[in-house]
Amino acid sequence: MSSHTSCIALAVAACALAAPADAQTIQRKDLSVDGALVIATTAMADCKAKGFAVSVAVVGRNGEILVHLRGDGTGPHTLENAFKKAFTSRTFRIPSGEMEDRLKKNPAMGAQYLTNFTTGRGALPIKIGDDVVGAAGVSGAPGGDKDEDCVKAGLAKVADQLK
User: Fold this and answer.
1) Which residue in 25, 37, 62, 110 has the most C-beta neighbors within 10 A?
2) What is the b/e burial string over 70-98, where b = at least 16 CB atoms within 10 angstroms of the residue's CB?
3) pTM, 2 dp
4) Is the pLDDT confidence value at 113 over 90?
């Protein structure tokens, strides 16, 4: 076999090994910034109508901030807390308040040491079907249950788009 033919054979073999035979792309839906803004502003308006000054965070599929709003008259901690609630909800795919129960059952739970983790109630995952595409968190109402109710109002506003 000539050296030229050997080089060609080697190149063909390398190409065949380099690419998986069944490589496919991933198709998915993501939360748009427009949808996130509707969720955030509706949640904030719902809380405001109830007399609560709050901050709201909506994160996307990877926990990245899509919308972050600090309400008039809120403490500076509410902005960070709203984000931590949303991030926790998104990354664990559950309402943020469920982390408190998990921690009570397992006080050595390693997740409590993660950056941006909280057990505070007030955030819910955003789902399209069974796929969690983000989360929304609220902080500032007198109790996480009230924060969560405002998130529910925000999600209800876009429920028809989350299919």
Assistant:
1) 37
2) bbeebeeebbbbbbbbbbbbbbbebbbbe
3) 0.84
4) no
